[in-house]
Amino acid sequence: MQHPEQDIRNRLLIARLPAMPQILIKLIELLQADDAGMPELAALIAKDAGMTSKIMAVANSSAYQRHNRSVGLEQALVSLGTDMIKTLVISESVFQTFNNFPHSGSTDLRAFWKGSLTTAVIARDIARVLDYPQVEEAYLAGLLHNVGRLALLATAPKEYAYNFTARDDEDLCAVEQRTLEITHAEAGAWLIERWNLDSFLADSVLYHHEPVPRLEAAHPLIRIVRLAHQLCYHADTPQAAAEAAGLCGIEEDKLDAFVKSAARQVTRAAEHLGIDLAGADEIPAPPALAQAAALKPVDPVQARLQEEVRNMVLVQEMGQSFARQSGEPGMLDAMTRSARILFDLETTVILLESPTGHALQGAGSGEAQQRLSEFAVPLNKPGMLADAANGRTLAFAARGAGPGLGIVEEQLFRIVGSEALVCLPLVAGQRCLGMIVGGVPAWQLPLLQKKERFLQAFGNQAANALETALSERGHARRQVAHVAEEYREASRRVVHEVNNPLSIIKNYLSVLDAKLARREPVVSEMSILNEEIDRVGQLINGLADLQPSDAGCVTNVARVVEDVLRLFRATDFLPASVQVVTRMQDGPQEIDGDADLLKQILVNLVKNAIEAQPQGGRIEIANRGLVNRERRLYVELVVSDAGPGLSQEVLANLFGAVKSSKEGKHHGLGLSIVHSLVKKLNGMISCRSGANGTSFELLLPARGSTSQLATVQARGVVDSV
Questions:
Q1: pTM score, two decimals?
Q2: Which of 79-88, 101-110, 328-337 has the lowest mean pLDDT?
Q3: C-alpha distances in Å from residue 241, one per residue of 120, 127, 647
Q4: Which candidate, 85, 12, 96, 103, places its Cα nearest to that of 45?
Q5: Taking Cα atoms as reference points, which of 69, 72, 82, 149 lies closest to residue 109?
């Protein structure tokens, strides 16, 4: 078993290596802008006191200043020129950052920095020859191409101290892979990827040792850095240099000029930057060596304990990292990146629970985005993936290992493109939110099976973060859906209610036309038309009115009933076969509330009563006097018909929007609207229905009922005393 201290990938995660300096990040963003010039550079540099001091020192040096007087920042920038300023800012930022790496202070870095500077200068010169638009990016890529060696020295000083000074070639990469299971190219690319740059910078670092034939179609920055590295470290191998030059379309006889020019530029740059490169060429660069491990015998129990503690720290670190992500896509990307690094996975895809919970669906990302977005695993059918999700257990599978794999698993093998799969359910509580599927070489399965607890702990952290993200997204969607549904419902109610006065207006226009033809007075009809037109306007305005009705107004119930019946009788709404009877008491007729709301309620109820008796019948509207309900006085108003009664289904869902036998998409809303209007009046409504008909009983707050009740209650208290 590999000793835990040799697991460099995990140690890189918790080493907390220095982050990229903000001035360098902003400079890269500035350089990518087409209109970046001297004013923008000056504004950026002025914000960094250390960088300003460096620029001023160089500008006032003998190389640039022939007079004894000092110059200010603006003059310094002009005298140095844009190219020199960019070089100084990039170089100084990188040196300040990476000289703070652990163990950098105790290591001779002269040869390292000379090689990095030389590669940077050559890369910039090649970029200019190729008309590569981001010349400074090429310089930065060359400067950082070997930063993985510093990262390995910082995280594995015992294992890497000797090979840090070794000759930088393919043998070094082979030794690093064999002893540390990671090369300096991979470590450097991983470090730069953490900076989240929108650039091929990390790729140029990752592939600077790649065989030339593999890079023929690569991005120009990758080919530029590959050639610059070759000329810096292996100019003594002409054939290899010529092959690398072919990547950039540069003739072999021009390569020597790049090397000689770089030597002059590096000397001048080191002087400006205050870097001592004297004697760097005399530092020996021996061949890489895989040293025999001179380790003490390891206690298996102690080693296991150390591994568990390390895994626990890593999982906690990952949980905090997931929590810092903004948005679900960023979180899923963080999960896949972390899983690849922690468990050395070749590729990683994520499957998430479908909205119905009956399947796992691919979360599209990477090269197979289209296929993943259409990929689904049904959970109600047997299979390795479905069983792992339903059982919330890890699953491992190798391609062609047995007949137990279904088509879904075979599809996933082709999408992932690996010899074996590890399937990690994302379990939060008792719910499987999805699954991380990683592709690995077949030989790696036994190693991952030994890390089952580590995998499960990682899956739990990822699931908890995902559950929080899904909960927040679901809450936001529910809020939006709730508002949209309220608006749709309000719109449907308004359309439904507007149809009533519009129909009345239409019928009254016919009556009006007939009366005008006979030259009869139309004052009454015009008054009704004006009232109904006003009511249409109020209903439409009410679409955005979320406030309750004004309880300060007083309404006469008998007068409203009379107005409603006058509307029905003067038009075709009330057939001759339907008799309407009113029974209004001499007692209390006034209620607290808006007359228009009561009118709207009665229009709906009378209209429904008429439609319930298509063959004719009887409608009664009665005021039954005062009712005391829950220590408050109400006027009881009843609207009843002699129809066949309501069905049990309709009665059970009476005041909701129910399926109606009437035609039209807004039918079935009437009683739900009546219910909401009664609530606006602070009243109550109930219904009785049977074979002999249906009656709706309205309890409407009697005028001054609250103050009257208070007086009665106070009098009762006095009497009891």
A1: 0.44
A2: 101-110
A3: 17, 17, 91
A4: 85
A5: 149
Helical axes 22-31 vs 38-46, angle rounded to 10°: 170
Contact criterion met (CB below 8 Å) for 343 and 318: no
Q: Which amino acid is at 630?
A: E
- 175, 167 contact by CB (below 8 A): no
φ, ψ of residue 298 in degrees (nearest 5): -95, 130
Helices (H), strands (E): how many in the chain? 29, 13
Instruction: Count the neighbouring beta carbons within 10 Å of the beta carbon of residue 208.
Output: 27
Q: Is 551 exposed, middle or buried (0-12, 13-18, 19+ CB in 10 A)?
A: middle
Domains of the chain plus CATH, in order, are 21-81 (no CATH), 99-295 (1.10.3210.10), 300-475 (3.30.450.40), 550-709 (3.30.565.10)
d(CA 507, CA 382): 66
At 386, which amino acid appears?
A
Using CA atoms of 32, 274, 169, 133 in order, give the dihedral in degrees to the nearest 10.
20
Using one digit for the tens of pLDDT, what is the confidence trace for 558-582? 999 988 888 777 666 788 889 999 9
What DSSP line would sit under 488-543, residue for residue? Answer: HHHHHHHHHHHHHHHHHHHHHHHHHHHHHHTT---HHHHHHHHHHHHHHHHHHHGG
Helices in 170-286 by DSSP H: which ranges? 170-180, 184-193, 201-206, 220-233, 238-248, 255-273
H or E stretch covering 684:
strand 684-690
Residue 184 and residue 174: Cα distance in Å, rounded?
10
Please state, in angstroms and rounded to a whole number, the distance separating the CA atoms of residues 500 and 481. 29
Mean pLDDT of 390-398: 89
SS3 199: coil
Per-residue model confidence as pLDDT tens digits over 420-474: 899 999 988 888 888 999 888 887 888 888 888 888 888 888 888 888 777 766 5
Residue 126 CA to residue 120 CA, distance in Å, equals 10
- What average pLDDT does the segment 46-63 reach? 71
Q: How far apart are CA 552 and CA 560, in angstroms?
A: 17
| pLDDT value of residue 693 | 92
Beta bridge partners of 592: 554
Q: What is the pLDDT of residue 402?
A: 59
pLDDT at residue number 153: 86
Of 187, 464, 246, nearest in space to 335 by CA: 464
Q: Name which of 477, 450, 440 is nearest 355 in CA terms.
A: 477
SS3 content of the chain, % helix, strand, coil (to 5): 60, 10, 30
- 3-class secondary-structure state, position 37: coil
Question: For residue 408, is pLDDT > 50?
Answer: yes
Write out pLDDT tens, residues 98-115: 766 665 556 788 888 889
What pLDDT is recorded for position 482?
Answer: 62
Write the pLDDT tens digit of every residue in 366-389.
555 667 777 888 888 888 888 999
| pLDDT digit string, tens, across residues 117-158 | 999 999 999 999 999 988 888 988 898 899 889 888 888 888
